[in-house]
Amino acid sequence: MSFEMPVEKWTAAANTVTIGATAAEGGTRTSVVTVGGDTSLPFLHFEGAMPNRPVIAMEVLDVAPAEWATPMEEAVGDVSGDAAAWARKCVEEFGADMISVRLVGAHPDEQDRSAEECAQTVKSVLEAVGVPLIIWGCGQAEKDNEVMPRCSEVTAGENCLLGTAKEDNYKTITAACMADGHKLLAEAPLDINIQKQVNILVSEMGLELSRIVMYQATGGLGYGMEYAYSIMERTRLAALSGDRMLSMPMLALVGSECWKAKEARTGEDTAPEWGPVSERGVAWEATTATCFLHAGTHILVMWHPRAVSIVRKTIDSLMSQEA
Amino acid sequence: MGLTGLDIFKQLPKTNCGDCGVPTCLAFAMKLAQKQASLDQCPHVSEEAKGALDGASAPPIKLITIGTGERKLEIGNETVLFRHEETFYHPTGIAVEVDAGLPEEELAARLEAVGGVSFERVGQTLRLDAVALRGEGDGFVKAAQVAGEKSAVPLILMNEDPEVMGKALEGCAEKKPLIYAATAENVEAMAALAKQHGCPLAIRGDDLSSLAELSEKAQGAGATDLVLDSGARAPAQVLANETAIRRAALRKRFRPLGFPTITFARGEDAQEKLQQAACYIAKYAGMLVLKEAEAWELLTLFTVRQNIYTDPQKPIQVEEGIYEIGSPNEDSPVLVTTNFSLTYFTVEGDVEASRVPAWAVVVDTEGTSVLTAWAAEKFTAEIIAEKVKAFDVGSKVKHRKLIIPGHVAVLSGKLEDELSLEWKVIVGPRESSGIPSFLRTAWPGEG
Questions:
Q1: Interface pTM (ipTM) of the complex?
Q2: Do the beta carbons of residue B39 and residue B31 sit within 8 Å?
């Protein structure tokens, strides 16, 4: 009996987006990252192509969390007070494909850092590493509208990925992106219709669809992972079926979500039945990332170097077509 | 995916004899299509038609039962490729291997340990589903007997020599173990054993074509309850095969592959093995066998399975009540929230992050979030007040201050009235992420 693989006939592909600009392209990056272009569901090589492998960005914060989980403290505690040193370690020691800088310190409830201070942080990271950058504000709309244009300006021509444009606050950042030659991260809260709406709004301002990456909110394993999983799976299906407004590559914030989980943080003295926290936290982050890979994520933003290395090997094995 | 009334009508005698209790064959066919009647009611239907109709009305992926009693395992009978289309119904059964060569006492201890693995999570008990016993010769036969007697969970018997399997089954067949595995070399003998003992049979091909062929051979030899192993072990190939099997069964109703699957996560590094296992849970495995697994691995995989198999239409809920976050005392703040698990766990996480211990009053809103519950009148001043009294919140704290989510600030006046002005209602942050700074800065002034 000969069995024929049941192949779905998709009509379209996910968009291809490149982040980062080398000297030849007007920037200073020593490497760039290209994601997307998929013509099949994730890793189904019998069905279509996955021309670009998913990438791992490692996240650095301008203000480190007040309390690291022990495994995170051990991994980056020595550098997490200095975003540039932290970023350098992520690239040089841990092999990050990209660095994601999040300016949590700008938040009025945190340190209320000024736009200028934030821009200096971003600049220091840019100079410390050669990989492309993702830059996020603090999440507070008014403050981000001050901070992000300045960060965009100081990285003009570097083709960074700037976040985030939201349904009720997209104009300032979109304008900055367009002016300074960046890519845009469009955010929606686990809602495909809102995601589509944000994409339409920013494209109506004149930003090409090919310059957008989507962030649809992330839940860590055990804390809403399945919502993000299904939203991304549905989005990928929509892209393959030709929905131009949902064809952009997708990003997931894995590290920050997972290291909030008590399963990742609680020491074995408190929860001996769960086994060593040194393995548990890493497993929590890596496994969340793996689930999202199967849902169609293109850019994983991660924290722990061991989780990064495990997920990198997982991507290697899923990209391999050997039986 | 079922047959239409007209498809069924074509197979009926078309005599309109009425013996089935319905006046015409067409009307009877319509009832069959709606599953309001059973084909047995027609005394005149031909054997041929019966076969065709039974076959067509069977689910595209057969439900397979492994084991007996309270902890029997049911896998298969899935209806969709993506969980958002409906839901996944029968969670991947997770098994760990036990070496049949262990001395009897150690074997018994291992079996007990496997049966005893249990974690509580979001009100669900997460456990291992089966023991996979692997070994050779007489030792295997003996171990199967011990496992049949002692194991609390169903068994998978892993041995490919039909003679050894036959002897092993004599000692434990009434526990309905899964026989692993029939291959091209032994399929007739293994299928005969499965038939003789009424046990489910796993079949292992070299690829999907040989697997389909084996399936027909095994069914031809009387083994009707099958579990499929495509033979692939490289993760990308397993993923491809799992997807192809699910699609062939659902989209093409390809009968030879209309059964649940069994997968094996292998590898030197436990963390890397875990990633394979997570993939197989997400992508259609009916069973997942691990060589060995530490607590942290199982906790992770059980949680993956719980997430993937959560019905998208029915959010997981926490039980209502008053919860301690950290070790709150009589001066600690009291926060009111809903019982949607995601809402509660987000609040719990943010309170923990604040390092300010607190009480959480969790109101049953049928698993909806704050704004949805408020809009649906499941999170009203009356309901919250009733719960504050019912949970006797006043006995936990000296102060009389309730913190409500910022999104329902509008409730504060009414809630104070409902509580006979004994409590002061404080409006907290709109988003849970604002809790740490609220508890550190705003609460001390209030407390």
A1: 0.97
A2: no
